């Protein structure tokens, strides 16, 4: 993934695993590597991305903001499921993923199993459609099973 070939092919990636397993670290490192290959990258935590989109909508700038989100060659959406999301999250994320599908790459990280996303986002149909697109040309990296933080910290020393 660090070679950026997948971005040129407009493929996607999902990094899944428990908190502290290195998903965000890997996503950021890959984002930096993709930038070094000459691509533009936009990194946002899921809750911040949705807050920014809501603010742009209120400011009458939704179209411009959505254009940025849907055309940047690599959009990294980090920590889906880490924080509570707005009720419109499933619809908003689906719109972004649908517009990016086979046009630009998306890297999404989550500490929640994909089977829980329908409940998490409150719309199983939207989640199914979103995952269908992400996984069609997608790479899945399962991180874990344990947190690097507890593995290297005092708790890890006690085990």
UniProtKB/TrEMBL annotation:
SUPFAM superfamilies recorded: P-loop containing nucleoside triphosphate hydrolases (SSF52540)
Pfam families recorded: IstB_IS21
A GO molecular-function annotation: ATP binding
Span of domain AAA+ ATPase: 9-141
Biological-process GO terms, alphabetical: DNA replication
Protein name: IstB ATP binding domain-containing protein
Organism this protein belongs to: mine drainage metagenome
């Amino acid at each position: 993934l660090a070679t950026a070939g997948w971005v040129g092919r407009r493929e996607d990636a999902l990094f899944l695993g428990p908190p502290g397993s290195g998903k965000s670290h890997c996503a950021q490192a890959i984002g930096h590597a993709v930038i070094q290959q000459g691509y533009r990258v936009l990194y946002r935590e899921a809750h911040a991305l949705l807050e920014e989109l809501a603010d742009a909508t209120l400011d009458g700038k939704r179209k411009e903001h959505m254009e940025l989100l849907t055309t940047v060659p690599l959009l990294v959406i980090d920590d889906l499921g880490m924080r509570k999301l707005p009720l419109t999250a499933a619809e908003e994320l689906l719109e972004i993923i649908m517009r990016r599908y086979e046009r630009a790459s998306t890297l999404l990280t989550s500490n929640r199993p994909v089977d829980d996303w329908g409940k998490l986002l409150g719309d199983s149909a939207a989640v199914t459609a979103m995952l269908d697109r992400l996984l069609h040309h997608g790479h899945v990296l399962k991180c874990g099973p344990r947190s690097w933080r507890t593995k290297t910290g005092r708790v890890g020393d006690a085990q």
